[in-house]
Amino acid sequence: MTAGKSILYIEDNFDNRMLVRRLLEHEGFLVLEAENAHQALELLQTRIPDLILMDINMPEIDGYTLTRQIKTAPQTSHVPVIALTANVMRGDKERTLRAGCDGYIEKPIDIDTFIDQVNQFLNGNRVKQL
């Protein structure tokens, strides 16, 4: 089911990217990476992934702003965007969903449940929008 599915992970922290890449590739996903919003937007002009994992706290353009850009662009508006973030204070999840994210996974990730969470989002499960 995961073979051939592509996931774009937008994350400025190298160690986080490596961990997520290893977990996803082990399950047969094609992993695309961007370390900032500019790289992500450039990549999205030539490749449309099946799912986007979005870090929220990035320099220059944050994940909220980038998600809004992705969701308003006709070629990418249908792609599920899942926040992968350490923002876990009261109201952070709601703010993430208002920005257009379709779901939310807290950091640090639980390596035992992470792939199941990703598969649920790929299978159309979404967090109820606000």
Give structural notes.
By secondary structure, the protein is α/β, with parallel strands linked by helices. It has a single domain, classed as Response regulator (Rossmann fold, 3-Layer(aba) Sandwich). The chain has helices spanning 14-26, 37-44, 63-72, 92-98, 114-122, and strands at 6-10, 30-34, 51-54, 81-85, 103-106. Strands 2-1-3-4-5 form a 5-stranded parallel β-sheet, sandwiched between helices. Helix 3 (63-72) links the parallel strand 3 and strand 4 (81-85). The mean pLDDT is 92. Pfam families: Response_reg. The modification 4-aspartylphosphate is found at residue 55. Residues 6-122 form the Response regulatory domain.
Topology of helices and strands:
Elements: E1 6-10, H1 14-26, E2 30-34, H2 37-44, E3 51-54, H3 63-72, E4 81-85, H4 92-98, E5 103-106, H5 114-122
Parallel strand pairs: 1-2, 1-3, 3-4, 4-5
Q: Quick check: average pLDDT?
A: 92
Amount of beta strand:
15-25%
Query: Helix- and strand-based class?
Result: alpha/beta
Give helix and strand order, one letter per element, not per position: EHEHEHEHEH
InterPro entries: CheY-like_superfamily, Sig_transdc_resp-reg_receiver
Modified residues (4-aspartylphosphate): 55
Protein name: Chemotaxis protein CheY
Domain Response regulatory: 6-122
Question: What is the compact description of this entry?
Answer:
The chain has 130 residues and is an alpha/beta fold. The chain has five helices and five strands; from the N terminus they run βαβαβαβαβα.
